[in-house]
Design goal:
lipid binding, DNA-binding, 10 strands, cytoplasm, Helicase, Ruva Protein, domain 3, 5-stranded parallel β-sheet, 53% helix, 3-stranded mixed β-sheet, ATP-binding, 4 domains
């Protein structure tokens, strides 16, 4: 920060940003936080209108963070430092610093809830998060079908719908999709979608403006109410009480309610038992972690929307197999790889993916060892373990050894020379030949492809 700045404001901005970052690191996880939020810098604050400019290293990164985290960051700033009313994102050029603080009185912007507009909430839905863009798989089919029923013209058999999954498995996507579909079916309907964090902030703000009654009335007039990340509302007595009364009112009117959380209702700590009962009375739809086939389908679907991007099939397979913790990391990894290739002009290869996504890959990989791979391959082909290091070149021995080398490269972070040393001190060129040969054979020989798939499943399990 520049020396011309107000030291007091600099300290307040810095303290608020540190608190916000701490919360985002906890909520998003270290990998997503480090990839997208950690590079954010504060570069300008204007107290006249309460606008704060945040910058990132590239236009791509600025657009990515703006699209996915603008609302969350705005609410976090309002909660930590009310002087900040709006935020904007841009790519930075040169060193970042907070520009001179202007000391005029800030102007309050319109809140998300506006009593002056007959108790209306602004509906903000991501246009990309529709049912058409949601890729179905075994792990999410129940939640998808339930969400589609919730948005159907016919009255659903259950309400509330409680979507439950770990971070990054598609809960928020389904809620936005419900909103889009329901609005298309009922254009005049009253739809409210917000996070639990935003619900709390808007409720407190309405009370401070003496608009609590209008706020409550607007909530209870909703035809469709959707609250995301409901786990963050627990422990807040006043907001829990208000949410309970709102749920009761909407249920009695036969209206539709959707909530989402990262844990089942019974695992919500500090929740009022009455609210727990209401949340459990509808349908609890669990979204399991996405399997390999779904991860592969998602990557292929995204790439089909970008026909100008050349991503080899082996890179897609590599990403699908190794980035397995959540779908947000999977898409984030793909986007980071595409952005890097576009900005540097380097072709997308398996080696580039390993280089640029090392932080994500290291966190996602189960620590499979080359010894474990050799043991599994020998059991599968009924070979003595010593054959992995022997000099025998008979096909019955050499082919399983080549498969094991291929699996070692696919499933471990080891380099070609390191793998060669584990197979009797073979040269790295021998390992490269084995990997390319097995990749070729998988495309030509169904039996070989089935063998490799079976071994991959055994090792991954």
């Amino acid at each position: 920060m520049g020396s011309e700045n107000s030291p007091e404001m600099e300290d307040r901005l810095q303290t608020a940003w540190e608190n916000i970052c701490s919360g985002l690191r906890r909520d998003l996880g270290a990998q997503i936080y480090g990839q997208w939020i950690k590079p954010v810098r504060m570069t300008a604050f204007d107290a006249a209108d309460g606008s704060l400019t945040l910058t990132l290293p590239s236009e791509f990164a600025a657009s990515w963070v703006r699209d996915r985290y603008a609302d969350r960051l705005t609410l976090a700033w309002k909660n930590e430092l009310p002087d900040v009313r709006t935020i904007s994102f841009s790519a930075r050029a040169g060193a970042a610093r907070i520009a001179q603080v202007k000391r005029q009185k800030p102007v309050d912007p319109a809140p998300a809830f506006a009593a002056a507009e007959k108790g209306q909430f602004r509906l903000e839905l991501d246009p990309r998060m529709t049912f058409d863009e949601f890729i179905a798989g075994h792990s999410n089919v129940l939640a998808l079908n339930a969400a589609q029923r919730m948005a159907d013209t016919e009255k659903p058999l259950f309400s509330p719908l409680y979507l439950q999954s770990s971070t990054g498995q598609g809960k928020t996507h389904l809620m936005h999709a419900i909103g889009h579909a329901y609005r298309d079916a009922f254009p005049e309907s009253r739809i409210i979608y917000m996070s639990a964090e935003r619900f709390m902030i808007e409720f407190v703000s309405a009370m401070r403006r003496n608009e609590a009654m209008e706020f409550k009335g607007a909530l209870r007039q909703a035809d469709l109410l959707m609250i995301d990340d409901i786990q963050f509302i627990v422990g807040k007595n006043s907001t829990q009480e208000e949410f309970l009364h709102t749920v009761d009112s909407l249920i009695s009117q036969g209206k539709r309610i959707v909530v989402a959380a990262d844990r089942p209702p019974q695992a919500l700590d500090g929740v009022d038992q009455r609210l727990l009962s209401r949340l459990s009375m509808g349908l609890v739809a669990d979204i399991q972690s996405a399997g390999l086939e779904l991860r592969r389908d998602i990557l292929e679907h995204r790439l089909a929307q970008m026909p100008h991007q050349d991503v080899p099939a082996d890179v897609v397979e590599f990403l699908a197999r190794t980035i397995s913790r959540n779908l947000r990391e999977l898409e984030g990894g793909l986007n980071k790889l595409l952005a890097y290739a576009q900005l540097t002009g380097r072709p997308i290869t398996r080696e580039l993916a390993e280089e640029q996504l090392s932080d994500i890959l290291s966190a996602c990989r189960r620590r499979i060892t080359i010894d474990e791979i050799q043991r599994t391959v020998c059991e599968y082909y009924r070979l003595d373990r010593n054959e992995m290091s022997s000099k025998r070149r008979a096909r019955a021995v050499a082919r399983p050894r080549q498969v094991a080398m291929y699996l070692a490269k696919v499933m471990t972070p080891r380099s070609y020379p390191e793998i060669g040393r584990k197979f009797g001190g073979r040269d790295h060129s021998t390992v490269i030949h084995a990997v390319k040969l097995v990749e070729q054979l998988r495309g030509e020989d169904t039996e070989m492809d089935n063998d490799v798939r079976m071994l991959l499943r055994q090792l991954e399990s």
